[in-house]
Specification:
heterodimer; A: 238 residues; alpha/beta; Rossmann fold; four-stranded antiparallel sheet; 8 helices; 36% helix; 27% strand; B: 401 residues; alpha+beta; six-stranded mixed β-barrel; 12 helices
């Protein structure tokens, strides 16, 4: 589903170039569960932004499905994000003045979905993350874990094929973090491709495929059986 | 994206910072209100003056000595005008059937004294028909006699009477005007300002007496009332014809109609209204800058939200749309408030100045809404484009605020 070939991304910071990614090749199939790990500055956030079409590589090719994304216009990449990609962020990024249901409706509003259908889907998505009872609450009336669940409901409301999570547990305590990852894993089991960027080895270790970045290059790409050994180990420590 | 959704989304964002929104809205409201109020004032003045002219009678010809050249070179031979005389006035009334009444006028200012009291007055030497031509009403006594053009009698304007004879009956008393003594035979009812002169401050005397008082040989002008409006053009030609004949074949008078004078005033006052509207429009421009500032702050504050909008699939055009609609909502709401305030203030002023009609011109309402909405869209462009150009990666990287 995803094919990166020779992807490089260079920023100019204070006049000197910074090579965040130096020719990355990566192929991810539909339905995979991939974690991307590495120390800060290794380029994992840059990779996630490129995968989410929020950013464009300076060189290389990125094919999403059959489409080459590097030659798309801004509006085309917007539509790709809208229909194919869901985002979950470390800081939730909920709109504070909207209720939980209003936040979940937001991507469907930009897609121009009729209000009746949209509201029904938003409720379904909130019930899917176990927040049906709190749909009318605003973000400041919800706990961190609940806010992240709303964000996940929003990310999957448009029924995308890819879910990208950027440090989804970075702002949560371990219990609710674990619940959030479990929630996304259940969505992965029903067919959604899941890519999680994290520096937390316990979160990253739960993925079946673990990609390790260092200094802008992929240094390890391991595949493990379902629910791999780290998962069992972390369950033991908790 | 549906319009209803955009409006609801933008409205929610505006409610998030009510005070700031209200101040920007107030700016537009003040701008629109001042445009409405000043154009009402201009329109009111125009209507007032038009009304005054109409009350003079639209069938009036005004004969002025001297030829007004409106085009071409100044004549090489002297065209020193002949005097415009009482005999001319009398001939016009006698020889032109369409003319119903004629009143010669000689006008000057002089000091009027009665006992210890004294004031400057406008003295009008004229004849009896002026009463009907200018539609004057008498408060007491009678107007100038028809058959004694040289009598030393006078008719006082209401204010002149009040100031020279406070609390007294002036009829039969003596007023000194210049070096002459006049007996008061009537008082004109108060009427207020009319075009050309304040009739309350005028003293009327017989025309021949007036010429002698001011030591003149020529009349100031002749007013001729035509029976019906259709005859105005032919009567005007006839007046020119009669006076050319009487003045040795020279065209040395100018005949004005009310229509031409009215049209000139109308043009001047329309220009005045436009100038007032222009001045008021400056405040609308300032209000637009207020909106721009509001939106720029809003874009900066909502950087994370804009990043999120882009991440979940809002196109740059949609981001621009959301912020433009937001700006237009503030300015249009301000426009509505300003329209109501302007019309309200106009009605309040109407209660105070009953004489002047404060009526906003018909286009004021739609124009206020259209212009205020346009102000929002225009001054919203820059902030909206700033929002659309935000890099989502950078915008999302911002933590709080």
């Amino acid at each position: 589903m995803i094919q990166l070939a020779g992807v490089s991304r260079t920023y100019v910071v204070g006049g000197s170039p910074v090579h965040a990614l130096k020719g990355v090749d990566l192929a991810i199939g539909a339905g995979e569960y991939v974690s991307i790990m590495g120390p800060s500055g290794s380029g994992k956030s840059t990779l996630l932004h490129l995968l989410g079409c929020l950013d464009r590589p300076n060189a290389g090719s990125y094919r999403f499905g059959e489409a080459e994304t590097t030659t798309m216009t801004e509006a085309e990449r917007c539509r790709l994000r809208r229909h194919q990609i869901g985002f979950v962020f470390q800081f939730f990024h909920l709109v504070p003045r909207l209720t939980a249901v209003g936040n979940v409706e937001l991507p469907m509003i930009f897609a121009g979905m009729p209000p009746g259908e949209r509201t029904e889907r938003a409720w379904q998505a909130l019930e899917g993350v176990g927040l049906g009872a709190r749909a009318g609450h605003r973000p400041d009336q919800l706990s961190g874990g609940e806010q992240q669940r709303v964000a996940i409901a929003r990310a999957v409301a448009m029924r995308p094929s890819l879910l990208l999570a950027d440090e989804p547990t970075g702002n949560l305590d371990r219990t609710s973090g674990s619940e959030i990852v479990g929630l996304m894993e259940r969505m992965n089991q029903s067919g959604l491709t899941l890519i999680v960027v994290t520096h937390d080895p316990q979160v990253g270790g739960r993925a079946r495929r673990r990609v390790r970045l260092s200094d802008g290059l992929i240094v390890a790409d391991e595949r493990h059986g379902a629910g791999g050994p780290s998962s069992a180990a972390s369950a033991a420590t908790v | 994206m549906r319009l209803g959704d955009v409006l609801r989304f933008a409205g929610g964002a505006l409610r998030g910072h009510r005070l700031r929104t209200c101040f920007s809205l107030l700016g537009v409201a003040i701008g629109v209100a001042s445009v409405i109020l000043l154009t009402s004032l201009g329109e009111g003045a125009r209507e007032y003056i038009t009304g005054e002219f109409t009350s003079l009678g639209s069938n009036l010809l005004i004969v002025v000595p001297g030829k007004t050249e409106t085009a071409g070179f100044a004549p090489l031979v002297s065209t020193a005008p002949h005097d415009l005389t009482e005999a001319d006035a009398e001939a016009l009334g006698r020889r032109i059937a369409a003319i119903r009444r004629v009143a010669p006028l000689v006008v000057g200012t002089a000091a009027a004294r009665a006992g210890e009291r004294s004031r400057e007055v406008t003295v009008v030497g004229t004849t009896r028909p002026l009463l009907e031509i200018r539609k004057l009403k008498l408060a007491s006594g009678r107007f100038l006699p028809a058959d004694m053009p040289e009598a030393a009698v006078c008719v006082l304007g209401a204010r002149v009477q009040r100031e020279l004879f406070p609390g007294e009956n002036p009829l039969g008393q003596v007023v000194r005007i210049g070096d002459w003594r006049f007996r008061v035979i009537g008082v004109i009812a108060p009427r207020g300002t009319s075009i050309g002169m304040d009739l309350d401050e005028v003293v009327e005397i017989p025309v021949a007496t007036g010429l002698r008082l001011f030591n003149r040989t020529s009349l100031f002008r002749i007013l001729a009332e035509v029976g019906s409006h259709e005859d105005l053009a032919s009567a005007r030609a006839a007046v020119l014809e009669v006076l050319r004949e009487r003045h040795g074949g020279q065209d040395d008078v100018t005949v004005l109609t009310q229509d031409s004078v009215l049209a000139a005033f109308d043009r001047i006052l329309m220009a005045l209204t436009a100038a007032l509207a222009g001045i008021a429009a400056i405040s609308l421009g300032v209000a637009g800058l207020g909106i721009m500032n509001l939106m720029l702050v809003s874009v900066t504050e909502r950087t994370r939200e804009i990043g999120l909008m882009k991440a979940i699939g809002a196109t740059p055009a949609q981001v621009v749309g959301v912020f433009l609609i937001e700006a237009a909502m503030v300015s249009t709401a301000g426009g509505v408030a300003g329209l109501l305030a302007g019309v309200g203030a106009g009605q309040l002023l109407q209660q105070i100045y009953v004489e002047l009609p404060f009526r906003p011109p018909g286009w004021a309402g739609p124009a206020a809404l259209g212009v205020s909405c346009a102000v929002g869209l225009l001054f919203g462009i820059l902030p909206a484009r700033n929002a659309a150009r935000l890099d989502p990666v950078v915008a999302l990287a911002r933590r709080k605020a």
